[in-house]
Amino acid sequence: MAHALDGSIHNSVTAMPADHAGKRKRALQVAVALCSLVPITAGAGGMLLGPCFFETPVIEPADLDGHFRYLSGLLLGIGIAYLLAIPGIERHRKLFLLLGAIVVLGGFGRLFGMLTTGAPTPFVLFALAMELVVTPLITLWQARISQAAS
Predict the structure, then answer these.
(1) In the chain, which residue ranges form alpha helices assigned H by DSSP?
(2) Can you tell me the distance from the alpha carbon of 82 to that of 85, in angstroms, rounded to the nearest whole number?
(3) Which of 21, 49, 98, 146 could bridge across to 93 with cysteines, CB 3.0–4.6 Å?
(4) Quick count: other Cβ atoms within 10 Å of Cβ 84?
């Protein structure tokens, strides 16, 4: 059923005049560009300012809890994406590069926080090692496997 639906959606999109489809594509590109400014601004602000990004020295527990759970959901998604890339791992070069870049960028944010606020707990040091050492090594390893397969 879903495959048939996908086909009908594809057929209706491909049946549009080229100029109409081009305008819709451009509108989507503009919308994504504008919407991407929200996580870019929030991410950069959070990396540079830490919890002070919330504009108050005291963060409400509900805000902190919500932010923690949101970031945990992102981590869950990253982990699932890595698991889904295991079958045919040699064919997922772009995915590994993207996921690796996301994880390393997050590690740089964590490292910056550590340098500005002091040494974290062993748990956070373990996470930092995963982000800035293990992830780049896994990404490079996958690149070698991918290159050998092509």
Answers:
(1) 2-14, 18-49, 61-84, 93-117, 122-129, 135-149
(2) 5
(3) 146
(4) 10
